[in-house]
Structures are given as C-alpha cells and as structure tokens.
C-alpha cells in the first residue's frame, strides 16, 4: 500500500499512469507529423513525454514525490493553453492579433488560475482543470481553428482526459497535505 491508499486505489493509479504512458507513446510515434521543427504543437508532444517520465519518477518516490508531482501537473495545466497562444503566433506571422488571439489569452488566464488553485487550494482544481481543457478547449478547437492542427486537438484531448483521470485518482494522496495547510491557517 502506498501513501495511505488501498491496494485497489494504488492499482488503479498505476494502471492509469500506464494508460497515460501508452497515449503519450502512441501520439509521439504514430500521430505526430514531425517534419516541422519549432512548431509549438510538436514541442508540446515532446514535453508530454518528458512529463510522463517525470510522473513515473515521482510515483516511484512515493510520499516524497507527491509535492513534485502536484507541481508538475499544475505546470502541465498552466502550460497547455500557452501552446495555443504560441501556435497562434507561430501560424500567424505578420498578422495582428485578432479575436482568436484574445480568446486564447482568456483561456490561458482561466487555466493558469485553475492550476494555481490546484496548488494552493484543493487538488480537485487540477483534475477538473485538465479535463475541462480537453473537453472544452480541445474539442472547441477541433475543426474550428485555422491555426491549431486537428491532429493536435485530438492528441491534446486524449492526453488531457488521461491525465485528468490520473489526477482524479491521485486526489486522495494529495488531500492530507492540502488539509494540513488549511489547518495551519
């Protein structure tokens, strides 16, 4: 048993992390058109693989890795909308910022706020924020955006849902620290 979790909870978390790993490898090998360098979408896929590796490392560290894991996931949530802003700028060279740019900036503010709330407040904000990014943001961009490739919207949706499920199962491990901080106030 790990970090006060039941064997069933630990098994589900491990299976979800295996699923996240599978999604990251599948996307990296089979879905990503690697021919364009410097594209923020390609950099995001590479970063996702690194994040999955880091999640495995923090998972093996047990309780001592919980804070690092939560920071990593908050960074993931804060970084996901930045890909959309930077892709807009990458694909829109020479054009002025229009309506879509400001929509991306607003999304960034919302998801960064959820990441901060997930770190400073309840860990549920991380799970909800990551899933919301997938269900609201990625699906909205799919076939609706001229600067986000459809392959990326689908890939980001798959990663967000897998990460969100993983984070939701990890909330019981994060809660003792959250409750401890609230008690100190």
How would you explain this protein's 3D organization?
This protein has one domain (7-180). Helix 2 (40-61) packs antiparallel against helix 3 (66-91). With 185 residues, the chain is an all-alpha fold. The protein has helices at 7-31, 40-61, 66-91, 99-120, 124-141, 150-184. Helices cover 80% and strands 0% of the residues. It has 6 helices and no strands. The longest helix has 35 residues, at 150-184. The protein is globular.
Helix content: over 70%
Structural class call reads mainly alpha
Helix count, DSSP H or I runs of 4 or more residues: 6
Low-confidence stretches: none
List SSEs in N-to-C order: HHHHHH
Radius of gyration: 17 Å
**Beta-strand residue fraction:** under 5%
Largest sheet: none
User: Could you tell me the number of beta strands?
Assistant: 0
Number of domains: 1
Global geometry: globular
- Rounded to the nearest angstrom, the distance between the terminal CA atoms is 31 Å
Average pLDDT metric = 85
């Amino acid at each position: 048993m790990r970090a006060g979790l039941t064997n069933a909870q630990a098994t589900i978390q491990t299976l979800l992390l295996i699923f996240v790993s599978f999604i990251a490898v599948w996307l990296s090998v089979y879905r990503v058109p690697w021919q364009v360098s410097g594209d923020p979408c390609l950099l995001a896929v590479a970063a996702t693989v690194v994040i999955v590796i880091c999640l495995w490392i923090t998972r093996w560290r047990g309780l001592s890795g919980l804070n690092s894991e939560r920071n990593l996931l908050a960074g993931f949530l804060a970084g996901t909308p930045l890909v959309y802003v930077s892709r807009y700028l990458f694909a829109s060279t020479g054009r002025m910022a229009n309506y879509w740019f400001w929509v991306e900036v607003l999304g960034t503010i919302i998801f960064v706020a959820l990441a901060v709330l997930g770190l400073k407040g309840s860990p549920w904000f991380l799970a909800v924020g990551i899933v919301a990014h997938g269900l609201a943001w990625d699906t909205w961009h799919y076939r609706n955006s001229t600067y986000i490739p459809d392959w990326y919207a689908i890939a980001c949706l798959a990663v967000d849902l897998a990460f969100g499920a993983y984070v939701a199962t990890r909330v019981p491990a994060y809660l003792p620290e959250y409750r401890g901080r609230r008690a100190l106030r």
